[in-house]
């Protein structure tokens, strides 16, 4: 068996998260920085309030890199500090709120729409790979 075929390192690269954040400044417009197993790793800058929405088929991971993020649910609001993450289960309505700018990492299936079941003027249909 040709072991090399299954263990190539040619597509591996070190991705520097801070450097990737320096490449964009728009808010609520996630950028893909890596893909694996049908999932995207995305970075986003948030400021202000997002729209209430849910994702019918996808769980969604938010990890805060910088700033403080509030996420409102219908029955409570949670607060995330840098280095903290949460997984929002499919079907759960949520609304991210960033009083000051927040930098986050997202981990979610590539097919997801960030505004979920809601089509809004801020909905991005295609995510840029940076
Ligand atoms: Ni969402």
Number of contiguous helices: 2
Helicity range of the residues? Answer: under 10%
Quick one: biggest sheet?
7 strands, antiparallel
Number of strands: 7
Overall residue-averaged pLDDT value: 90
Q: Looking at the chains present, what oligomeric state does this protein adopt? A: single chain
Overall SS class: mainly beta
Amino-to-carboxy terminus distance? 36 Å
How many domains make up the coordinates?
1
Low-confidence segments: none
CATH topology: Jelly Rolls
Tell me, what's the shape? globular
Comma- or semicolon-separated keywords:
globular; binds nickel (II) ion; Jelly Rolls; mainly beta; 130 residues; 39% strand; 7-stranded antiparallel beta sheet; 2 helices
Account of the 3D structure:
- With 130 residues, the chain is mainly β.
- It has a single domain (16-129), classed as Jelly Rolls, CATH 2.60.120.10.
- 7% of the residues lie in helices and 39% in strands.
- Strands 1, 2, 3, 4, 5, 6 and 7 form a 7-stranded antiparallel sheet that branches.
- The chain is globular.
- Residues 53, 55, 60, 94, 114, 116 line the site of nickel (II) ion.
């Amino acid at each position: 068996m040709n072991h090399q075929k299954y263990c190539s390192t040619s597509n591996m690269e070190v991705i520097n998260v801070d450097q990737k954040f320096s490449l964009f400044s728009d808010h609520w417009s996630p950028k893909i920085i890596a893909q694996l197993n049908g999932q995207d790793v995305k970075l986003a800058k948030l400021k202000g309030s997002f729209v209430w929405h849910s994702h019918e088929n996808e769980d969604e991971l938010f990890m805060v890199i910088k700033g403080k993020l509030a996420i409102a649910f219908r029955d409570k609001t949670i607060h995330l500090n840098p280095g903290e993450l949460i997984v929002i289960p499919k079907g759960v309505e949520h609304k991210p709120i960033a009083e000051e700018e927040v930098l986050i990492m997202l981990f979610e299936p590539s097919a997801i729409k960030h505004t979920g079941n809601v089509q809004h003027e801020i909905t991005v249909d295609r995510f840029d790979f940076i």
